[in-house]
Design goal:
mainly alpha; Four Helix Bundle (Hemerythrin (Met), subunit A); 0% strand; globular; disordered N terminus
Length: 232
């Protein structure tokens, strides 16, 4: 009980609520464009996507929820990931901040409805892929580390049959579709930052797993692509 209270402390709950609820609504809060239907759809999809995926994970891998919640206390997290992970999170917040400012000051032109619908499909595909990876992989920690106390092993089912890091791939799809759906060309700047850091993180994580996780090198031989089918 004490360990659970430590993991889900008031500070952690407030941080989670901020990133899960406040950040998706940031464009609406900044712009005060309360009739902006795309921003409402985006925020609701973001919150529902998080809630549904975590409920499914809790049913299938209840220990994974605790693993991800205690990410700040893992002593064996890789030092490079302790720097990269917060920077990627910061980039996500900057995307929403710039989208809101863009709408407030009218910096970018509006995208056509067909392009918005296409971007919405890509958004949904990204959420679905990232959630599928999370639900399928019991070891999908929030930080890169070898989870020896959880009998860490290679997961090669579900989306891991096609690419080695489908969670990151799904996240990138959602980011890349966001500027079009929310009419913000300027949001591509922090997204370029996120894409760069994610590629670096994927490369470092993949090398770490090949060096440290039993059978991962064999898995990497079978599943060639890390992030993008047919390319890398």
């Amino acid at each position: 009980m004490q360990q659970t209270q430590k993991i889900f402390s008031a500070r952690v709950v407030v941080q989670m609520l901020f990133f899960i609820v406040v950040i998706p609504f940031l464009p609406l809060l900044i712009s005060r464009c309360w009739g902006w239907w795309e921003a409402w759809v985006y925020a609701i999809l973001s919150i529902l996507g998080f809630a549904i995926s975590r409920l499914l994970v809790a049913r299938r891998h209840p220990d994974l929820i605790a693993e991800r919640a205690r990410f700040m206390w893992h002593e064996n997290a890789q030092s490079w990931d302790k720097r990269l992970s917060p920077l990627i999170g910061l980039g996500g917040g900057l995307v929403m901040l710039i989208v809101g400012l863009d709408a407030l000051f009218g910096w970018s032109p509006k995208f056509s409805l067909p392009l918005k619908m296409l971007s919405l499909v890509i958004l949904l595909a990204g959420y679905a892929l990232a959630s599928y990876a999370l639900i399928e992989n019991r070891f999908f920690s929030a930080v890169v580390r070898l989870q020896t106390e959880r009998n860490h092993r290679v997961v090669s089912s579900g989306p891991y049959r096609w690419i080695r890091h489908p969670g990151y791939a799904g996240g990138l799809l959602t980011y890349l579709a966001t500027p079009v759906f929310l009419d913000s060309c300027w949001a591509f700047l922090p997204i370029a930052w996120i894409v760069t850091l994610t590629v670096i993180r994927t490369s470092l994580e993949d090398k770490f797993l090949q060096d440290e996780l039993i059978d991962y090198s064999d898995y990497a031989q079978r599943v060639r692509y890390r992030l993008l089918l047919g390319i890398w």
